[in-house]
Design a protein that fits this description.
Blueprint: E1 6-10, H1 25-37, E2 42-43, E3 51-58, E4 61-68, H2 76-85, E5 93-99, E6 107-111, H3 119-128, E7 134-139, H4 149-153, H5 159-182, H6 184-194
Parallel strand pairs: 1-4, 1-5, 5-7
Antiparallel strand pairs: 2-3, 3-4, 6-7
Helix pairs in contact: 1-5, 2-3, 5-6
Catalytic activity: an N-acyl-L-alpha-aminoacyl-tRNA + H2O = an N-acyl-L-amino acid + a tRNA + H(+)
Site (Discriminates between blocked and unblocked aminoacyl-tRNA): 13
Keywords: Cytoplasm, Hydrolase, RNA-binding, tRNA-binding
Length: 195
């Protein structure tokens, strides 16, 4: 990851009805990071419209923390606007999102790759013109039985999951800090064995 500022985006859907959904775990992690930085996420204007964001320092780096206020499948436009406004390249973008293909409680880091049916990632790839951005993948596991994945991600975490959710959010926030401080490979070596 190049030196200089980094845009960290947490994905989710807007409004209180979605706040506790598995699909909103990226936004939950972003909220925790904003607390750690001591910044308030405020609505943007102009190119920063359709998002809330705040700035500060995290792991010794200048960061812009942001969450699109659009629905998940339209995340790309606000992300593109934020990159342009802050004069950042996609290589300076970290996206925190839910991941069906990783067990609940696990966190994984990667750069690029497919979107795995994730509409938020698909939208960001379309708007930035590249898949080559960093991802913090927060495991939510596969739906039980024959439940449709689209329904599963829009359900709140179960009571059992909620007992360890705070720990998972902290692990994911720590992974973001590790990534910013030491780069992808070193961060993977720390984060992947831990979760």
């Amino acid at each position: 990851m190049p030196d200089g500022p980094v845009l960290v985006v947490g994905l989710g859907n807007p409004g209180p009805g979605y706040a506790g959904n598995r699909h909103n775990v990226g936004a939950m992690v972003l909220g925790l990071l904003a607390e750690r930085v001591g910044t308030k996420l405020s609505p943007g204007k102009g190119p920063r419209a359709r998002s809330v964001s705040g700035e500060g320092r995290l792991a010794g780096r200048k960061v812009v923390l942001a969450q699109p206020t659009t629905y998940m499948n339209e995340s790309g436009g606000p992300v593109r606007g934020l990159l342009d406004y802050h004069h950042l390249a996609p290589e300076q973008l970290v996206v925190v999102h839910d991941e069906l293909d990783i067990p609940f409680e696990a966190v994984r880091l990667k750069r690029g790759g497919g979107e795995g049916g994730h509409n938020g990632l698909r939208s960001i790839t379309r708007s930035t013109g590249t898949k080559d951005y960093l991802r913090v993948r927060v495991g939510i596991g596969r739906p039980p039985g024959r439940q449709d994945p689209a329904d599963f991600v829009l359900k709140d975490f179960s009571s059992t999951e909620r007992k360890v959710l705070d720990l998972l959010l902290a692990e994911a926030a720590d992974a973001v800090e590790e990534l910013l401080a030491h780069g992808l490979e070193a961060a993977q070596n720390v984060v992947h064995p831990r979760t």
